[in-house]
Amino acid sequence: MTKPSSALLDVRDLRVQVGERTILHSVSLQAEPGSLSVLMGANGSGKSTLGMALAGHPHYRVLGGQALLEGQDLLALPAHERARAGLFVSLQAPPDIPGVKNNLFLRTALNAVRAARGEEPLDAFDFIASAKAAARDLSLPEALLGRPVNEGFSGGERKRNELLQLALLRPRVALLDEIDSGLDVDGVRAVVALIGRLRAQGTAILVVSHYLHMIEQLAPDAVLRLDQGCIAETGGLELARGIARTGFARAAEPALEA
Question: Which end of the chain is less packed: N or C, by CB atoms within 10 Å?
Fold first, then answer.
């Protein structure tokens, strides 16, 4: 009998296919409350596939394995129920949603999550006050709250808008796919500060990044290197520093501990 796990997120032998190609061959990992893991890997190694499969994207077909969120079978849930259960997955390239106001999108998502937690919904007045405060913390112009989601946003504004979603939703588990992409120095500082606050509240976080300076600031509990759809190495900051020095095109080395 498989021993039950106390982890918020427990992924075991996950195998995922996209089209006719198997991308994840066997990925197992755990994320404890308040933990931070960094996922690194060459292009095509499966980092984004992991996030999309956990989120329930229909183009990512799970061939086998298991993913539990607080003991609940995540893979059995439709995508919106995974979000309501406390999973947040950011995108490398957040899309536009024409015709849908940003503040309406955010309030609807937040109240759906609050309902799943047994909390009362926020009215428009209380929501906009909290949204504006969170936007100021992230240096996101308040005017963008009233515009269609990501329409006409710069790359950095799209990423800050995802950070705004993260700050308001306060998920149980967050997988952030290159959240630093397109951000300036102040934006990276905002990422580090927000992740620190969420960890203190018990959110388990997995960050996909190759930006060593940010990784060092985040001080992760673990660094995982994905290679050909498997976790090939597990270590600490020294593993991230070694990858930054030599790249991924190198002979396999023993896992390095911080």
Answer: N
Asked if residue 161 belongs to a domain, the reply is no
- Decide if 253 is inside a domain: no
Say what the alpha-carbon torsion angle 4, 9, 196, 113 is, to the nearest 10 degrees: -120
Angle at 60 between CA 57 and CA 63, to 5 degrees: 130
Amino acid, single-letter form, for residue 71 = G
Q: Is 204 left (phi over 0), alpha (psi -120 to 50) or beta?
A: beta
- The CATH number linked to 34 is 3.40.50.300
- Residues written for the chain: 258
Query: What gap in Å lies between CA 57 and CA 111, rounded to an integer?
Result: 22
Predicted confidence (pLDDT) per residue in 223-236, tens digit? 999 999 999 999 99
* Best CA proximity match to 225, nearest among 91, 47, 17, 58: 47
- In angstroms, the first-to-last Cα distance of the chain is 33
For residue 81, which amino acid is it?
E
Distance CA 49, CA 65 (A): 14
> How much is the pTM?
0.90
- Is 258 a residue whose pLDDT tops 70? no
Q: Are the C-beta atoms of 235 and 249 separated by less than 8 Å?
A: no
Domain span at residue 216 reads 9-95+173-246
Cβ–Cβ under 8 Å, residues 55 and 81: no
